[in-house]
Amino acid sequence: MASTTSSSTATAGTSSSTTIQTETKRTTRVLSSKLYFNVPQSKVPLIYSPAYNIAFFGIEKLHPFDSSKWGRICQFLIAEGVLDRNRVVEPLEASKEDLLVVHSESYLNSLKNSLNVSIIMEVPPVALLPNCVVQQKALYPFRKQVGGTILAAKLAKERGWAINVGGGFHHCSAEKGGGFCAYADISLCIHYAFIRLNISRVMIIDLDAHQGNGHEMDFSNDRRVFILDMYNPDIYPHDFEARRFIDKKVEVPTGTTTDVYLERLDKALEVAGNIFEPELVVYNAGTDILDGDPLGGLKISPNGVISRDEKVFKFAKDKKIPLVMLTSGGYMKSSAKVIADSVVNLTKKCLIDLESTQ
């Protein structure tokens, strides 16, 4: 008995020591990162880079995702006259050291195999490409978007809100990618906020049509993070283990209409707001809930998406909580225009301000 007790005590001590070492490394990496930089007041808290867009030999068209969506959103906003191209914030690319804040060395090494990337991106021909091409044409754009998501938290804390016109890779966890998500930008964003922004409570509001299983696994034992996930249970990823870690779960089955969806969202936001008091909201605003989306299975109108976004921004503004918005999934060409229209509506409702201060 004595030897068993001493053995278990030693194991617990080793585990505790490993955890401390991991957290120390994480803190060191975050504090030495260049992803947080000072953004002049002449810029607005809308983050985008032309490098976000993915184009390699037309192969990207084999996945239903519109890989030029991000650039088209900005084009619509500029054409509408609500956004000045020169006032957009361009992020830095997340480096390997930045990614190691959440990801393991072994996971990042797995992305040096084009077959593994092809499985994550759900585009089989990518497996046949030299990995240097895959890195440049696919993973580099993703890493730029990760940099944008991480920076968005800093801008949101300073300005009240920030929109990364990209990101929202909610199927990727520390050790596993999938569903067109190679890096866990949401998890990375939150860990940076914990360390650099002195934030201790974060609410993820995930309204993409798909379950956000990546961040759910990453924060499965972290009570600093509250997850509200409203998703279609009939579609990918069917991750029943990750569902156990959702704090406020709202399942909206295939065929759910706009009125039902918005009513359920109102109730969910009220419940979540009463349970948890966040210091930052990370809003995963996928547009794959749109009626006709080939992967989402829901029947939400464009005006429904605009109302949804307005409700979430109003929720955060009423509670004076900084909000980060990510554009996440959306598999129709019409998604970009709907997102742009939503941003215009947020401006008209004075929930955001795209006028820079000189």
UniProtKB/TrEMBL annotation:
Which Gene Ontology BP terms does the record give? epigenetic regulation of gene expression
Query: EC number(s) of the enzyme?
Result: 3.5.1.98
Q: What is this protein called?
A: histone deacetylase
Q: Where is this region: Disordered?
A: 1-23
Compositionally biased spans, kind Low complexity: 1-22
Q: Where in the cell is it found?
A: Nucleus
The protein's organism comes out as: Coptis chinensis
The prosthetic group or cofactor this protein requires is: Zn(2+)
What Gene3D superfamilies has UniProt attached to this entry?
Answer: Histone deacetylase domain
Query: Which Pfam families does this one have?
Result: Hist_deacetyl
InterPro entries the record matches: HDAC_classIV, HDACs, His_deacetylse_dom, His_deacetylse_dom_sf, Ureohydrolase_dom_sf
Q: Which reaction does it catalyse?
A: N(6)-acetyl-L-lysyl-[histone] + H2O = L-lysyl-[histone] + acetate
Q: In this protein, which residues make up the domain named Histone deacetylase?
A: 63-345
**Described purpose of this protein according to its UniProt entry:** Responsible for the deacetylation of lysine residues on the N-terminal part of the core histones (H2A, H2B, H3 and H4). Histone deacetylation gives a tag for epigenetic repression and plays an important role in transcriptional regulation, cell cycle progression and developmental events. Histone deacetylases act via the formation of large multiprotein complexes.
Q: Which keywords annotate this record?
A: Chromatin regulator, Hydrolase, Nucleus, Repressor, Transcription, Transcription regulation
Output the lineage of the source organism.
Eukaryota, Viridiplantae, Streptophyta, Embryophyta, Tracheophyta
EC class: hydrolase
Q: Which GO terms describe its cellular component?
A: histone deacetylase complex
One of the record's GO molecular function terms: histone deacetylase activity, hydrolytic mechanism
